[in-house]
Amino acid sequence: MSVESVSAQGFAEQSLDVLRHVTESAREDVRRAAELIADCIRADGVIHAFGTGHSQAMVLEVAGRAGGLVPTNRLQISDLVLYGGDDPSVLDDPLLEREPGVAVRLYDLAAPHARDLFVIISNSGVNNVIVEMALHARQQGHKILAITSLTHTAAVPAGHASGKKLVDLADVVLDNAAPVGDALLSLPGGGAVGALSSLTGVMLVQMAVAEASGLLLASGQRPPVYVSANVPGGFEGNLELEKRYAGRVRRTAS
């Protein structure tokens, strides 16, 4: 790659090429993901989204946003403090996501119903807490939708004692098409700049939500979706929709 291509235009051109590829190649997988989502909502289930690091950006696309589905719940490591009573100092450990048992505690704090769906997002798909969450959710009978980079996960060893990766435990996998290391534009002497997985991950999430909404409409059910709280009546209307899932979805300041 030339030095000239390390630029705003270089990133725009390459990332748009990947986005076009993803929207075409993922059509069937998006349809299958949408069926999981629609089935969950029809069964009065809740969609629990989990990720760490920058994968939390896609979690926010799933859970509690305008134009998104109401029966969604965001799981995060800070739940150990917010709901589990742990001292805030536990979050000072940058390697907390590698500790065994963390995901099981997060699962227990959320108290999911059997019909709930798990959306687990990780570019590498190998971090201990990610695999532990997928493994535990699967053992409890939940369906799992994974968003990950198949290229990256194939290039790195498993980080969980089971030897499993996220892709091994999911019912449906959406490939974000990110390269190993996530960044697109190679730098002279090594390294790269211009992370991709957030762009493609958001596209995949919104495609799946839109497709699921279409499936619900086709079966005669209005999708329970959020209206922006910054339009007249939006906040009040959202509160009414949330009442159906009282105690099952968390909405904290963010």
UniProtKB/TrEMBL annotation:
InterPro entries: RpiR-like_SIS (IPR035472), SIS_dom (IPR001347), SIS_dom_sf (IPR046348), SIS_GmhA/DiaA_subfam (IPR050099). Gene3D superfamilies: Glucose-6-phosphate isomerase like protein, domain 1. Residues 37-223 form the SIS domain. Pfam families: SIS_2. It comes from the Bacteria. NCBIfam families: PRK02947.1. This is SIS domain-containing protein.
